[in-house]
Every structure is written in C-alpha cells, then in structure tokens.
Write a structure and sequence with these properties.
By secondary structure, the chain is α+β, with helices and mostly antiparallel strands. Helices cover 37% and strands 22% of the residues. It has a 4-stranded mixed β-sheet, with helices on both faces. A hairpin with a 2-residue loop joins β1 and β2. The radius of gyration is 15 Å and the shape is globular. It starts with a helix and ends in an 18-residue tail after the last helix.
C-alpha cells in the first residue's frame, strides 16, 4: 500500500458512518484499493501517476469493468488524503450516504418533472 492508502486505511478501518471497508479487495482480475461490499462502493486513491502515459485509459477500462459488476467507483486524490485523511474519509462517507445519482432509483428527473 502507498503512503496515502495507509493513511486512508487508518480512518476507514474504524468503520466511519457504520460502513465496513476492506482493503486490497479483488474484483475480477482487478484489486480495489478499498471496497465496501454492503453498499457496493469501490474507493480508489489516485496519485500523480494516474495522469501519466496510458494510465487514464487503463483506469477508464478498469472503472467500466467494476461498474459492470455492480459497483460504484469513487476516486480520491492522494494529495487530498495526505493533507487530511480524516476529512477524506468523512467525504467518502458523505458521498456514500448521498451520491448525486442513485441508479436503483432510475434516471434523475428532467427539469421541471420533479414538481
């Protein structure tokens, strides 16, 4: 595990928001940095290397595979984790509790249809 992953694990292993995370969890041929099976959420910690070379395309393929297997993927920057691991964990829990779109609820309403 990288230094940011270790810092985040120290927070996630305390089950913030009552969520149990696993580290280095296999999904197909991929290894997720962190995974919460109860809400089908994968958290990936991305450092600068994720912006180089062909990595963005590989990450997109990885995300597609993970999503096709019923998980949501949340990417967190390594710099954010290093600056405030507890805050990053709190943000992950907040996002898990209220993501912008819940696929099980169907597509979001069009403008004006929610009234």
């Amino acid at each position: 595990m990288s230094k940011p992953e270790i810092a985040l694990w120290q927070e996630l292993r305390q089950r913030p928001g009552g969520l149990k995370f696993r580290r280095q969890h296999p999904i197909g041929s991929y290894i997720a940095d962190f995974c919460c099976l109860s809400i089908r959420l994968v958290v990936e910690v991305d450092g600068i290397v994720h912006d180089m070379s062909g990595r963005p395309q590989r990450d997109a393929g990885r995300d597609r595979f993970i999503k096709e297997n019923g998980f949501r993927v949340l990417r967190v920057s390594a710099s954010r984790v290093l600056a405030d691991a507890a805050g990053a964990a709190a943000a992950i829990v907040a996002w898990a509790e209220n993501p912008l779109h819940r696929p099980a609820d169907g597509p979001p309403p069009r403008a004006g249809e929610d009234k």
